[in-house]
Write a structure and sequence with these properties.
five-stranded antiparallel β-sheet, disordered N terminus, single chain, 40% strand, 196 residues, globular, mainly beta
């Protein structure tokens, strides 16, 4: 009986070793990034690259505390590159950027503090699909009494006579907790605020 148990244990341990050996390696995309469920799209795939945004806590590198970051991970090569959109913005996972792809394949990132002010910040990449270089940060103030949080980007390509229309849905227009939005008919160059 002891022999059978020992053999069974060997088979079990052997199968665990084989399973562990067959597991793919763990990939760390960002060693200090947080985000919440209230912003979308938090991650997109563009030309074989996984692109996502987060807020750094500064756990390992205190200078990163509150940075709004975008990670670009090449799925085929495993190359990983992080861009900082705003240094020391605010340490709050609700500030993570929403992302969308514009008609010319440049990437738009929008982010705002968690109800602390009336500003929505955004940046657009300088080249299509390339997150290594971004235009300067721009700011939209939907109204002076707005208390912005939670960007949710959506691009509807058939709107605006087929030229496309961008929407950023957020909370806080005119100090309310109701759904609110801003609209752009020129790929993020100008915005109009709307709200309930």
């Amino acid at each position: 009986m002891v022999r059978h148990i020992a053999f069974a244990v060997l088979l079990f341990v052997g199968s665990i070793d084989a399973t562990i050996a067959a597991q793919p390696s763990v990939v760390t995309f960002n060693d200090d990034g947080g985000w919440c469920w209230f912003e979308d799209e938090r991650a997109i795939i563009v030309d074989g690259k996984l692109i996502f945004g987060s807020v750094a806590a500064g756990c390992h590198q205190p200078a990163r505390r509150g940075n709004i970051e975008v990670v670009n991970y090449d799925i085929e090569t495993g190359a990983n590159q992080t861009s900082v959109l705003h240094h020391g913005f605010e340490l709050d996972d609700h500030d993570s950027p929403a992302l969308t792809v514009l008609s010319d394949d440049r990437i738009l990132a929008m982010y705002a503090k968690h109800g602390r002010d009336n500003r929505i910040c955004y940046r657009i990449t300088t080249r299509p699909g390339d997150t290594t270089e971004w235009q300067s940060e721009r700011v939209i103030v939907p109204s002076q009494s707005t208390s912005v949080t939670y960007s949710n980007l959506l691009r509807l390509c058939n709107e605006n006579g087929g030229k496309g229309r961008l929407f950023d849905f957020f909370r806080g227009y005119d100090g309310s907790f109701k759904p609110s939005w801003i609209v752009s008919d020129d790929e993020g160059e100008t915005w109009t605020a709307r709200g309930l």
